[in-house]
Specification:
5 helices
């Protein structure tokens, strides 16, 4: 895998994102399409240092849970709990309109790709990650939520 989300991987993610619309129904879970985009934007905000998040990582989460979740599991279980900073019922951001969130998310991918790995912030559950690990996590996270909306 790459240190960035670019090339065919980025193109596929963008293509799938562009199949969403404000009325796209989720196949599971509580978030609507706009809330999911906001949730993904919050994940990038945390990574890039634009949103504060508590580092609740520990040895088990970093060295056991992370590799299993990203490199062993084919898909993530439906309804997997998220960090409070990504949960809009807790500390997550308030969604804006669908198209603002969508275009912002596309820009966030580019900003992430340009950011130096050493400047990325710790993940709330997994702690300090390399840029490659962050990329792998985002690719898996996109796949999980895009599957949630059937695109």
């Amino acid at each position: 895998m790459s240190n960035t989300i670019e090339g065919p991987v980025k193109e596929k993610i963008i293509s799938r994102l562009d199949k969403l619309n404000p009325e796209t129904k989720q196949l599971w879970g509580k978030m609507n399409a706009t809330q999911m985009l906001t949730h993904m934007n919050d994940a990038f905000r945390i990574t890039l240092g634009m949103k504060e998040a508590d580092n609740r990582s520990n040895f088990f989460r970093r060295y056991i849970m992370f590799p299993v979740a990203i490199y062993v599991l084919r898909t993530w279980p439906k309804g997997t709990p998220t960090a409070k900073e990504l949960n809009q019922e807790k500390l997550g951001s308030t969604p804006r309109d669908f198209y603002t969130e969508l275009e912002f998310l596309k820009k966030m991918i580019d900003i992430f790709n340009e950011r130096e790995g050493a400047k990325l912030k710790p993940h709330p559950m997994f702690g300090r990650l390399s840029k490659r690990e962050w990329s792998d996590l985002f690719i898996k996270h996109f796949d999980h939520h895009l599957n949630q909306f059937g695109v």
